[in-house]
Write a structure and sequence with these properties.
This protein is of the alpha+beta class. The chain has 15 helices and 14 strands. It binds cytidine-5'-triphosphate and manganese (II) ion (3 copies). The site of one manganese (II) ion has 5 residues, from helix 11. One manganese (II) ion binds next to helix 11.
């Protein structure tokens, strides 16, 4: 006979890629607090600490109930001593002093504002803060040397910090589809990133492009970018060519987690979306968007007929498409955990290009995400449940 349990027990697996994490969950008041600490650790370039807080938050996202007391955390993995202390304080007092003082601190706020500029990373934001910069307009006021990306980041700051809606993402999809089909008919275009995971809004729109005929996708990006630019859809773009070398025993392993696909980080000029349907496709030659000049930064006025939107374009050879799709769908923590699972539990090495089995000393092919999960000995987790 089974012993009866008085408390329903819910087990949570320890790797984020072993569990289902929906977009909406029951512990936002706790996860937001832990993620402030994670973000602050990133600003201090303390990766270990940041990942620890992100893993704790992620476990709480997977719970089918709201945590009310410390007892509700019994048997949960990944909750370190520090995270538990923060959770306890929030449950008892309604907030955590450490989280609130972090949130209020001048350094955290400045780092948040400065890294919020497209093209400004943690390193330059930190340098700026130590020189007394507190907000994006300080970059202009103090005459900082800015690269092209950062200049665009300052110029379109307001637009780029306004969430991109699903509707706007679909409007961009239509433009990208038109562009890709003009330069390489028959291409396959997938919306990846947060929107593929079911998010209602995002900070950008991510696309992965491939073609069934291996090889014809080579050189696609410059043609695509040209087309978009000629039609006036690009406010900024930086294209990086494919640096992934196929050696004779298979694809070489990238030196870090950054993949090597042909890619383009861009800023699109998107015509105003109407309420119910797709965007009015407006081109750059008709420059009806009114702008004004604020502290040397060009800012779009509310009511302008277009807005700037960050768009990431990635081109993958067909044979790597499943890996690229998995790698570009996220979440970032889910990806990280997949790679950790592969390495620590399976003796395999996973990237957005390939899966290498160290024991068998060979690459494992896959034509779908499902096959990759199967190779890894994992239950398939659909995109909308990868919101770790
Ligand atoms: N990615 C990547 N290499 C980069 C940038 C991103 O592989 N240089 C991957 C990330 O791992 C993530 C996906 O692309 O899985 C999407 O990244 P991003 O657009 O930053 O985040 P989203 O999850 O789409 O969330 P958001 O709505 O904020 O855009
Ligand atoms: Mn994204
Ligand atoms: Mn993001
Ligand atoms: Mn992106």
């Amino acid at each position: 006979l089974k012993s009866s349990e008085d408390t329903p027990s819910f087990t949570v697996k320890s790797y984020a890629c072993q569990r289902r994490t929906p977009l909406k969950h029951h512990n936002t008041f706790l996860t937001e607090a832990l993620e402030i600490l994670a973000e602050n650790a990133e600003f201090g370039e303390n990766e270990g600490r940041s990942v620890a807080f992100r893993r704790s938050a992620s476990v709480l996202k997977a719970l089918p109930y709201a945590v009310r007391q410390m007892d509700d955390l019994k048997n949960l993995p990944c909750l370190g001593e520090h995270s538990q202390r923060v959770i306890k304080e929030i449950l008892e007092d309604g907030s955590s002093r450490e989280v609130e003082s972090t949130r209020q601190s001048a350094q955290f706020q400045a780092m948040k504002a400065l890294t919020g500029v497209f093209g400004v990373g943690v390193r330059s934001a930190d340098r700026g803060f130590r020189e007394g910069l507190l907000c994006p307009s300080d970059l202009i006021r103090t005459g900082q040397k800015l690269n092209k990306a950062q200049q665009a980041g300052v110029q379109y700051y307001d637009d780029l910090n306004r969430p991109v809606t699903k509707q706007e993402a679909l409007a961009i999809s239509q433009i990208v589809e038109r562009a890709v089909n003009s330069v390489l008919p028959g291409s396959i275009i997938t919306l990846t990133g947060g929107f593929r995971r079911g998010k209602e809004v995002g900070h950008d729109v991510d696309f992965l492009i491939t073609h069934e005929e291996e090889g014809v996708e080579e050189g696609l990006m410059p043609k695509l970018v040209n087309w978009l630019d000629e039609q006036g859809f690009l406010l900024y773009q930086k294209t990086t060519r494919n640096s992934y070398l196929e050696s004779k025993d298979g694809p070489a392993r990238p030196p870090n987690n950054m993949d090597r696909f042909e890619r383009c980080f861009s800023i699109f000029k998107l015509g105003q979306c109407s309420e119910d349907s797709s965007a009015v496709l407006e081109t750059g030659s008709d420059d009806s968007g009114t702008t004004d000049n604020v502290n040397g930064t060009t800012r779009q006025q509310p009511g302008s007929s277009w807005r700037a939107v960050r768009v990431d374009l990635v081109v993958s050879p067909f044979s790597q498409f499943a890996f690229a799709t998995l790698g570009w769908t996220g979440s970032k923590l889910f990806e990280r955990e997949l790679r950790r699972w592969a390495g620590q539990e399976k003796g395999m090495s996973l990237s957005s290009h390939a899966l290498y089995d160290s024991k068998q000393q060979r690459y494992l092919r896959a034509n779908s995400e499902e096959e990759i999960f199967a190779h890894l000995g994992l239950e398939f987790i659909p995109p909308c449940e990868r919101n770790s």
